[in-house]
Amino acid sequence: MNPWKPWFVFRPSQIVRRLTFRPSSTYRRLPVAWGGDLLALDDEHIGRCLGTTGIYDLAVSELLFRLIHPGDLVIDAGANIGYMSVLAATAGAQVIAFEPNPELQPILRENLGARGEVRPVALGSHRHTAALIPPDPAEHNNGLGRLGAATDAGAVPVQVETLDAELAGRAVAILKIDVEGAEQAVLEGAANALHDRRVRHIIFEDHRGAGSAVMTHLLGQGYTIYSVGWTLRGPVLGDADTLSAHARYEAPSYLATLAPEAACAACSRRGWTALGR
After folding, report:
1. Are 274 and 61 in contact (CB under 8 A)?
2. Which of 63, 141, 57, 50 is nearest to 101 (CA)?
3. pLDDT value of position 103
4. Across all residues in the chain, what is the average pLDDT?
5. How many domains does the chain have?
6. Cβ 258 vs Cβ 250: under 8 Å
7. Residue closest to 193 by CA, chosen among 223, 222, 163
8. With contact defined as beta carbons under 8 Å apart, do 179 and 186 qualify?
9. What does the alpha-carbon distance between residue 66 and residue 274 come to, in Å, rounded to a whole number?
10. Contact status, residue 142 vs residue 81, Cβ threshold 8 Å
11. What is the distance between the alpha carbons of residues 178 and 176, in angstroms, rounded to a whole number?
12. Residue 39 to residue 26: CA distance in whole angstroms
């Protein structure tokens, strides 16, 4: 354990929780650094992060707190158990959470409650029925479910809708996308919203980095792209054309924004909202 991490330095009590945390392979309520708790499977990726550090994806968590204004509409595409959805609601946003995995939907609904809306569908390029391939249980990461072929082992039929249809003309402050390789399809299904500049910020994972199809698409729509990372003192927005700002053990996350000056200003101050509201 490295004690020189923000979640330990700014929350020293978390060190004790880290040393005493023992996963039990059950769902239980785990405290989060920014307040309250979440129902999570404690030996699964998100649950283990909450149990050991009190936070999940620190840089993205902080970015959401800094970019959200009360009343903003936030779309969580690939909501999983609702960590980012609940965080966004805590920051004052109106939240619509999309999660096609029927095993995660009850947990998502319980965590989000009346603070947002859960839509039990996937987002894609067009409306159709697809097959959800559940993750390998050995990975202990429910977020690795993906859309695939109906002939794949364990495939579950799910409904796919377009974001354009689901939004019905509404403007979005933040679109968070975590859909295991289907990011481009989600953007294609939001063609009208992107063309009309109705999506201010997009936060997404991209393991290919600069030059990927997703980044090329967003640059063509007029977005400025930054890699998202952190130092001990606070969040970092890095040039997407250079090395990613994220830590080597984290998924590479990026911010595409129509308001680059506002985004940079929001991330310029030191400290952590996500580590103690």
Report:
1. yes
2. 141
3. 92
4. 91
5. 1
6. no
7. 163
8. yes
9. 9
10. yes
11. 7
12. 10
Supply the pTM of this predicted model.
Answer: 0.93
Q: Which residues of 15-38 are buried (b: 16+ CB within 10 A; e: fewer)?
A: eebbeeeeeeeebeebebbbeeeb
DSSP helix/strand/coil, 107: helix
Q: Looking at residue 259, what is its pLDDT? A: 98
Is the separation of the CB atoms in 154 and 136 below 8 Å?
no
Is residue 201 within 8 Å of residue 226, measured between CB atoms? no
In angstroms, the CA 164 to CA 179 distance is 17
Whether 272 is in a domain gets the answer no
Q: Which two tokens stand for residue 64?
A: 């959401």
CA angle 43, 45, 51 (to 5 degrees): 60
Domain interval for residue 225: 6-266
User: Over 60: is that where the pLDDT of 220 sits?
Assistant: yes
Tokens coding 220:
């063509």
Strands (E), 32-170: 37-41, 73-77, 94-98, 117-119, 122-123, 128-133, 146-148, 156-161
- CATH code at 34? 3.40.50.150
Distance CA 205, CA 177 (A): 7
How far apart are alpha carbons 194 and 89 in whole angstroms? 24
